[in-house]
């Protein structure tokens, strides 16, 4: 993975840039000591690391605006950072850039239950948004698996999803408005505590723009009343094909479960060895969760059971108690931890049309074998968002490169069958060089134009999302 | 002009050097387009891909909405966002197209639960102002690859490009619906009742108040579930008065703003914080008001020529004049910084200034 060479002119005036930042920030909001900036050298894509020139941790929108003005004046690149949980390297620094972390801006500005919104500072963690409203019976729907740690700012940057988006959508569907600071330090409000933002859908463009258009400092989020209850069912099948057909039939049957999770044999075996959830010995399993009152849940599960029966499940377990429900989710929720026990892993995030599930799993198996690696598949089957986990040994020279090559092949496969490179993690640096697989130069050029408008100097997170050759002339200008 | 293919359309735009008025069915355009030659998309029609098992539809932009809806109904599915038919309101004929629905981000009462058109839209193809064909999004529900131009095109009212193909995620059509009604509530009580309903776990898919006629809540789904939720919701609403169950005719009427059909005056659409709605309606001095989306959307019928924005002053939200001639622009003026971003995008996507001149900006 290549990053642009640092700009020597910026490195040469480091002292002046730091002095300008120090002049507009409280003392504890500026970090320049490499011993401390080390904590910001990478995000959750730990294979790539780089010390930034400086880290700023502002507490207010005004401080963010001041930082942006100074950086703009000096031509310094800014890399926005939420909680640093990006799996795609979305907040990977460069030596000539300032990391702008919003983690200290984590307050609740306003909650309004009658109008069903909450306004938060963008550094607030995803789960603590729900924490702020659950006493009143509400929740914030997008639930990325890092939700304990990840920040709303990063969720907006990456348009994060989660296990429950089949019913509730992803971040963009639950975002009402933002306060955003542009690269020139201007503070703009896009949308607000009402349902449709006026004018062009700038909010839709900002959400998922990977910190390339502005720094979001506050957000109005839609909150929803909590369902009366939820209950999962676990079913095991004799093949990936059969499990895939069952998913399709459930959807065609008019049911809309809140989650349909899929695990293949390698994943089942690994999680069993790790978490001992008591999963059945089978080729593929589904965890399907439905919501509602006890009677509604019974009705939906009866329909799901009838559909599943047509596919001769080797196991079918409905959770009858809270404890049983937890056990059904235990293995799924431990899947990533289990992989960590087996070795180093890369987590992919491509999406495919649900109808291509069985074919894609078979091809992944063939590709994996040809590389001599192991892959376990766990994913959100209802929406086709796959998370193949490629296991490798980071201490063995060449293994990472081999795993990355397999990952690229799998993502190309996702695009070939009509899907995409990333369903919820974002492009970052990780999938940057694969963009031409999915998009023509014209398609990418259209996206670059949006950045040209918001950030004409290409200072915001500029080496991400698009292949470097595509953005080279703009970054150099 | 009525190109028969995307390639023909792209070539036409590439060589164009005079303004073009983009038209699907011409049924829902808001505001006046300046002098321009009409460019119709009706020649780009037909469903390209429909996978009921994946809840996915890809369809060419000029396809009639009615054709899309009947194809989905045959599989027991539907567009989630309940697109309105504004022909009666605007006194127009013609046949609404799916591309026009997207260009207007047209969303009906179910928007309060299932999201707007832009929330169901997962892919788009369009021709920009230089004749380039651009693809964004795709046919899968979860896709964060690159900048989201899909949302940008939805609701851009033909000012950024000519939409040629769109992809949606769909929903199963429900087995049944039930509509609960409360009578005699004033606007403030009605909004409070709707907030109570929308804040309940009973998954309300419509919340409307038609002053003088009643306050309505809709539930949809499997029969036993709807029955159960109707009973429980009636209990929640008990403190607002007697709850009756009525037929669901009100939803299509509200979706199409039928109570204002054939009535004189300007028609405005307010997007507001629901609990602010009654106060704003009082300030507007409207001849009639309809509350949808729990009060988040208000349709106002005003005496012709009233400057509603001047009457309302500063508020959280915005007002669009859907019918009528002024004063002031039909679309809400934007703060300078936001207007500059929008103008910048238009200049990039339509550098020759071809598409729908004057729409969304100006008078």
UniProtKB/TrEMBL annotation, chain A:
Entry keyword set: FAD, Flavoprotein, Oxidoreductase
InterPro entries, A to Z: FAD-bd_oxidored_4_C, FAD-bd_PCMH, FAD-bd_PCMH-like_sf, FAD-bd_PCMH_sub2, FAD-linked_Oxase-like_C, FAD-linked_OxidoTrans_Type4, Oxid_FAD_bind_N, Vanillyl_alc_oxidase_C-sub2
Keyword Transmembrane helix: no
Pfam families, per database record: FAD-oxidase_C (PF02913), FAD_binding_4 (PF01565)
Gene3D superfamilies in UniProt: 3.30.465.10, 3.30.70.2740, Vanillyl-alcohol Oxidase, Chain A, domain 4
FAD-binding PCMH-type domain segment(s): 48-226
Cofactor: FAD
PROSITE patterns, A to Z: FAD_PCMH
Keyword Oxidoreductase recorded: yes
Xref: PANTHER family: GLYCOLATE OXIDASE SUBUNIT GLCD (PTHR42934)
Record's protein name: FAD-binding protein
From TrEMBL, chain B:
Residue stretches making up the FAD-binding PCMH-type domain: 1-173
Keyword field contains Nucleotide-binding: no
Gene3D superfamilies: 3.30.465.10
Matching InterPro entries: FAD-bd_PCMH, FAD-bd_PCMH-like_sf, FAD-bd_PCMH_sub2, FAD-linked_Oxase-like_C, Oxid_FAD_bind_N
Alphabetical UniProt keywords: FAD, Flavoprotein
Record flagged with keyword Nucleus: no
One Pfam match: FAD_binding_4
PROSITE patterns with a match to the protein in the record: FAD_PCMH (PS51387)
Protein name per the record: FAD-binding protein
Organism from which the protein derives: Paragemmobacter ruber
């Amino acid at each position: 993975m290549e990053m642009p060479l640092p700009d020597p002119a910026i490195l040469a005036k480091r002292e002046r840039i730091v002095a300008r930042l120090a002049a507009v920030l409280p003392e504890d909001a500026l970090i320049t000591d490499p011993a401390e900036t080390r904590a910001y050298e990478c995000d959750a894509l730990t294979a790539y690391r780089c010390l930034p020139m400086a880290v700023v941790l502002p507490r207010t929108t005004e401080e963010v605006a001041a930082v942006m003005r100074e950086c703009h004046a000096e031509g310094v690149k800014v890399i926005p950072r939420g909680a640093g949980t990006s799996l795609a390297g979305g907040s990977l620094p460069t030596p000539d850039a300032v990391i702008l972390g919003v983690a200290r801006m984590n307050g609740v500005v306003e909650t309004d239950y009658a109008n069903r919104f909450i306004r938060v500072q963008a550094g607030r963690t995803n789960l603590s948004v729900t924490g702020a409203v659950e006493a009143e019976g509400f929740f914030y729907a997008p639930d990325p698996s890092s939700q304990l740690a990840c920040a709303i700012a990063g969720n907006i940057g990456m348009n994060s999803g989660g296990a429950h988006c089949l019913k509730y959508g992803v971040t963009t569907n639950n975002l009402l408005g933002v306060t955003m600071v542009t690269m020139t330090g201007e503070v703009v409000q896009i949308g607000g505590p009402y349902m449709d933002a006026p004018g062009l859908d700038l909010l839709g463009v900002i959400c998922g723009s990977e910190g390339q258009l502005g720094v979001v400092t506050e957000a109005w989020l839609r909150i929803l009343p909590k369902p009366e209850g939820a209950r999962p069912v676990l079913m095991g099948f004799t093949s990936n094909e059969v499990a895939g057909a069952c998913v399709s039939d459930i959807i065609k049957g008019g049911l809309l479960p809140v989650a349909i999770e899929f695990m293949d044999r390698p994943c089942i075996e690994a999680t069993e060895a790790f978490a001992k959830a008591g999963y059945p010995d089978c080729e593929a399993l589904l965890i399907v969760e439905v919501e509602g009152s006890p009677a509604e849940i019974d009705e939906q599960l009866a329909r799901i059971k009838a559909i599943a029966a047509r596919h001769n499940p080797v196991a079918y377990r409905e959770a009858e108690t809270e404890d049983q429900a937890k056990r059904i989710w235990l293995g799924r929720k431990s899947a990533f931890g289990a992989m960590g026990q087996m070795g180093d892993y890369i987590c992919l995030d491509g999406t495919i049309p649900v109808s291509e599930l069985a074919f894609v799993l078979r091809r992944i198996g063939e590709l994996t074998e040809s590389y001599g690696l192991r892959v376990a598949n766990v994913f959100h089957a209802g929406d086709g968002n796959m998370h193949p986990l490629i296991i490798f040994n980071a201490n063995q020279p060449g293994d990472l490169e081999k795993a990355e090559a397999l990952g690229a092949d799998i993502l190309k496969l996702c695009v070939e069958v009509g899907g995409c490179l990333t369903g919820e993690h974002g492009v970052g640096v990780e999938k940057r060089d694969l963009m031409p697989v999915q998009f023509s130069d014209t398609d990418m050029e259209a996206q670059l134009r949006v950045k040209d408008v918001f950030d004409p100097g290409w200072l915001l997170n500029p080496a991400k999302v698009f292949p470097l050759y595509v953005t080279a002339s703009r970054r150099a200008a | 002009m009525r190109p028969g293919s995307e390639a023909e359309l792209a070539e036409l735009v590439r060589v164009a050097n005079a303004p073009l008025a983009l038209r699907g069915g011409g049924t829902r355009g808001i505001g006046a387009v300046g002098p321009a030659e009409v460019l119709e998309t009706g020649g780009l029609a037909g469903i390209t891909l429909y996978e009921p098992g994946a809840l996915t539809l890809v369809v060419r932009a000029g396809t009639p909405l009615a054709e899309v809806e009947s194809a989905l109904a045959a599989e027991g599915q539907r567009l989630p966002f309940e697109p309105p038919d504004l022909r009666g309101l605007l006194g127009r004929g013609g046949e609404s197209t799916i591309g026009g629905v997207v260009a207007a981000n047209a969303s009906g009462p179910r928007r309060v639960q299932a999201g707007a058109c832009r929330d169901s839209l997962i892919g788009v193809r369009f021709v920009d102002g230089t004749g380039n064909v651009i693809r964004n999004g795709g046919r899968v529900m979860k896709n964060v690859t690159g900048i989201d131009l899909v949302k940008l095109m939805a609701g851009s009212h033909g000012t950024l490009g000519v939409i040629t193909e769109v992809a949606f995620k769909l929903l199963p059509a429900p087995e049944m619906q039930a509509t609960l009604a409360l009578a005699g509530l004033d606007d403030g009580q009605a909004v409070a009742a709707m907030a109570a309903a929308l804040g309940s776990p009973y998954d309300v898919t419509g919340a409307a108040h038609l002053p003088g006629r009643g306050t309505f809540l809709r539930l949809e789904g499997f029969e036993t579930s709807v029955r159960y939720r109707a009973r429980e919701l009636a209990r929640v609403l008990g403190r607002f008065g007697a709850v009756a169950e009525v037929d669901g005719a009100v939803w299509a009427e509200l979706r199409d703003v039928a109570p204002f059909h054939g009535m004189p005056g300007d028609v405005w659409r307010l997007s507001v914080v629901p609990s602010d709605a009654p106060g704003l309606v009082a300030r507007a001095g409207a001849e009639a008001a309809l509350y949808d989306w729990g009060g988040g959307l208000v349709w106002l019928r005003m005496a012709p020529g009233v400057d509603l924005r001047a009457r309302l002053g500063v508020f959280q939200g915005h007002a669009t004049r859907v019918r009528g001639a002024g004063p002031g622009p039909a679309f809400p003026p934007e703060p300078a910084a936001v207007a500059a971003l929008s103008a910048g995008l238009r200049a990039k996507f339509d550098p020759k200034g071809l598409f729908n001149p004057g729409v969304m900006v100006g008078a």
